[in-house]
Amino acid sequence: MNTDVERLRAACERDLGDPADWPGPFGYPDALALCIIDAIYVTGTRHLTVEKVVERYRAYRAAQGGNADTDGAPELLANVEELGGPLQWAAAIGNRRPTSTAKGAPLRSAALVEVSQALVDLGVRTTADLRAVVEDDGRGAQAKAAWCAVPGQRSGFTWRYLVLLAQQPGVTADPGVAGYVYRELGAAHGDDVAALLQAVADEAGWDATALHHAIWRFESARPGRRELPSTA
Q1: Are 97 and 229 in contact (CB under 8 A)?
Q2: 105 DSSP 8-state letter
Q3: What value does the CA radius of gyration of the chain take, rounded to a whole number of Å?
Q4: What distance in Å separates the CA atoms of residue 230 and residue 232, rounded to the nearest whole number?
Q5: Domain extents for the chain?
Q6: Which residue, of 54, 170, 178, 231, has the fewest CB within 10 Å?
């Protein structure tokens, strides 16, 4: 057995808990609309609640003859407008959760519209656009700043989660996940992180995308960089 794969698997078994309790395979590599919905609604709640919102959006779009799994930000904005605005969208598809516990905090559906419009204004209409933007330091910083300026998104947690949701499975590794791998195997380790995670998943019988997500959430919760969903 490859020593690095064995060591990394042991670390995952030590840190990540029972794989049966990990979130299932996640992400929407072709649907920026679903990435936005998930990212905006994920904080401070069980992911099952988010899944219900996503499924209601999928069902609504299917009834229209559309396909939520290829919708971009413009389609999401059109959906909100068709339903009459953020308040009506919250009643029909989302929920009435506010962006924070602060008095008068706007609904998450309102934040969803703001971030979607900000991305469209920057030319980010699809997941492919988002992936291209985050590869460009200048444009990526601009897009992140626009996202984080929306109520409830200041910490950057939901921005990083958005980018993670939009990635093609197995192609790249989030920097936080790469940091975990380097910490366990040595900072000078040169092997491709995504390939190592895939090898661990194959050896252990795990889903590679779920493994990536489990490591990402573990890293998000580490002392000194604690930005759990419930804090945003």
Answers
A1: no
A2: P
A3: 18
A4: 6
A5: 3-25+171-221, 32-166
A6: 231
